[in-house]
Amino acid sequence: MPQLDKDPQVVAEMFDGIAQRYDITNDVLSLGLTRKWRHEVTREIDPRPGMDILDLAAGTGTSSVPLVEAGAKVIAADFSAGMVAEGMRRHPEVDFVQADAVNLPFDDDTFDVVTISFGLRNVVDTERALAEMLRVTKPGGRILICEFSSPTARPLRASYTWYRDHLLPKVAGAVTRKAGSYEYLAESISQWPDQVELGKLMVRSGWTRVAYRNLAGGIVALHRGTRPVADPQ
Ligand SMILES: C[S@@+](CC[C@H](N)C(=O)[O-])C[C@H]1O[C@@H](n2cnc3c(N)ncnc32)[C@H](O)[C@@H]1O
Question: Which of 50, 82, 151, 169 is close enough to 156 for a disulfide, judged by CB 3.0 to 4.6 Å?
């Protein structure tokens, strides 16, 4: 399969175009499973009052709301003006910033936790984004990545791959009337590193104590890591 072109401007415009129907489409395509996955993300982050959290590629802020509700100080950052505008309209209680994951407009050592849900796969340079997330995390702070991954059991892998490549783009095209965006979704998932490979990228980018947990048999994986207290010389 040819390498997917993730031209940042094209990706941002694609999300601008689906912003208004993004959340309903997620619920339809995942048969409601995204709600459970988001609950698991929040549980892993364990947000507390006073905690500084960056929710990167936050889209319309659906992944940010539970963190805000727990009392954390949350910045929801995304590079799509359309997603940010829709997020600000729906969730005035969330602080949105338009920002690119590969060049974050935040000082070093700012956040206790950085998190990214269903976003890292879309970034043109994964390692650069992981390094930027490391830079803005406080020493000893954590990262939590929620992303599509590789089902571990062969029968699930076969039926899921068929669903993802054939049915999903058609259903999504009907819900959003933007078929191309969801062909991109299927392709970007199929070309994304599996659980072990993403873990290796995190380690290479400087994260320690890297581990993952599968959800829905590995359709989604939650990767976590810690910024070392002393950076390697
Ligand atoms: C699938 S949505 C996920 C939104 C949200 N985190 C959620 O869980 O619903 C992916 C988001 O990643 C954003 N994105 C993609 N590349 C980005 C980048 N380089 N910097 C910031 N945001 C980016 C897109 O604009 C889009 O809103």
Answer: 151
Nearest Cα neighbor of 150 from 199, 217, 212 is 217
Q: How far apart are CA 95 and CA 88, in angstroms?
A: 8
Pocket, ligand 1, Cβ cutoff 6 A: 8, 11-12, 15, 57-59, 62-63, 78-80, 83, 100-102, 117-119, 122-123
Query: Mind listing the pLDDT tens digit for each residue in 46-58?
Result: 999 999 999 999 9
70 a known binding residue? no
- pLDDT tens string 158-199: 898 888 888 887 877 777 777 666 777 888 888 899 999 999
Higher pLDDT, 175 or 98: 98
CA 224 / ligand 1 centre spacing (Å) = 19
Domains of the chain, first to last: 8-151+193-226 (3.40.50.150)
* CB-neighbour burial class of residue 67 (10 A; exposed 0-12, middle 13-18, buried 19+): buried
Three-state DSSP at 80 gives coil
Condensed to tens digits (0 to 9), the pLDDT of residues 28-45 reads 777 778 889 999 999 999
Nearest alpha carbon, ligand 1 atom 23: 57
Q: From start to end of 118-228, where are the E strands? A: 137-148, 208-215, 220-226
**Residue 117 annotated as part of some ligand binding site:** yes
